[in-house]
Amino acid sequence: MSLIHLELLDEKSRSALKKLSVFKKEGILAGGTALMLQIAHRYSFDFDVFFQRPLEDADYRKLQSLFDVEQTRVKNQDLFILMTKDGIEINFVHYYFPSLFKAIPAKHLNIYDIRDIAADKAITLGRRATWRDYFDIFYFLYKKIFTLNQIIELAERKFKVEFNPVLLLEQLVYYDDIQDQKLSFYKEKFTSEFIKKFLFETVKRYRQKIIVK
User: Fold this and answer.
1) Among 66, 2, 68, which Cα is nearest to 40's?
2) Residue 35's CB: how many other CB atoms inside 10 A?
3) In angstroms, rounded to a whole number, what is the distance separating the alpha carbons of residues 155 and 123?
């Protein structure tokens, strides 16, 4: 079993995760917090919970009974976005794409395998990416958790024709429409300039290898 870094969660987030355990049978923790718990790269306290079925009113009512909901930003069969009075964002997602790998067993919610998260990050960059998504992919590459080719291969396996590797390569070096958000690093700190330069050089080397082949 992989090491899960629950110590990175603050008290409010630990309490929220414990409450979310009532959805453990069908819900899987994904996104930035699931990644943080596995690789301890940055702090993330929002909860993205993926389901392989449409969301139901009963799910929403259960959330209301568990949390003091301050605001419901989205509520439909594919997505709930709630903000609690403790400042925690909870996203329930009807995720259409099956996982490539089994979820990692954990006490409260099982956790998406890091390889599935890498594939998800790759397709997200071509859609509604945030600076956090860029950093997560940077960290994969910088720490040699994955190569760029491995991330592309994972995304192609998971999303098939829905994923466009050319678009990913373009987005990795395009930042005009991305807000330079402040990130809360766990140990190592990186400037946005360093991240952008590293991504640019990585994409450049990848393109050169393709040309040589």
Assistant:
1) 2
2) 25
3) 7
